[in-house]
């Protein structure tokens, strides 16, 4: 963990988060923000938190389908590892929670951690294409108010860039499967300008990773991945809508979908643990486009972030304790 603390990516993320927070707070009235937070209707937040945990449960279900070619894993262990991973993402830098999640399940299910991590790469690809579908639906069903067309154009560009990235990853995975030796040799040539120790680590890692990249041949399990992905992201829209309603804003549901897409792009930006600052900025500027005051938008952003931050940390720490695992030990393995 000491090495992680001296990682330049960590301090870059903290700097970006601090810059976003400074940009947000310098132009708001703090008293109005506190007044808006004081008037929130907490009854809307209870189902918002419940739906958030339901989303994690469907993530565990999808993960079970992805792991099916390796082992029929316990849904309880999958849910526990999912909560631990998302808790770690909120507390550790550089998205180490993904590695923590893999190690937590590998320990419980006695699987190779590289094979488990390979399923999480497929998990992220499933997320990526579902979000792209959500982006497509949002762009064609939601028309931003006059003066904000540049934001819509930015979403198009971001969508195309993300699509290109995911297609590149899929092509790379397909080539790895069909022409493993040629692809690895090509990758080795690409890595020649870098230190030899990098190549000596990356190539064996990809080899062991490749062993875990398997898609179930069972049609029902493949459809399970598709349907659970749609449910996961459909549920993710609702807490945003409920948070807005907690402040007395009854915005159309596509607006919440639009905010969700912005949040997805925001968490791709390097930031401090928990995506503080970048997450809030995406939410605030999204709501500003629909005439919400800056103070109220910041208040809503704080609540939406809180819904996704504090409950999963508590649940993740409880799952960690129940599994007799140590975050320090898992974080140390993830940071290697």
UniProtKB/TrEMBL annotation:
Name listed for the protein in its UniProt record: Membrane protein
UniProt KW Cell membrane keyword: yes
Keywords: Cell membrane, Membrane, Transmembrane, Transmembrane helix
Compartments, as annotated in UniProt: Cell membrane
Domain of life (superkingdom): Bacteria
Pfam families the UniProt entry points to: LPG_synthase_TM
Membrane topology: Multi-pass membrane protein
PANTHER family: UPF0104 MEMBRANE PROTEIN MJ1595
Membrane-crossing residue ranges in chain numbering: 40-58, 125-144, 156-177, 198-217, 223-242, 249-269, 275-293, 300-321
Database matches in InterPro entries: L-PG_synthase/AglD
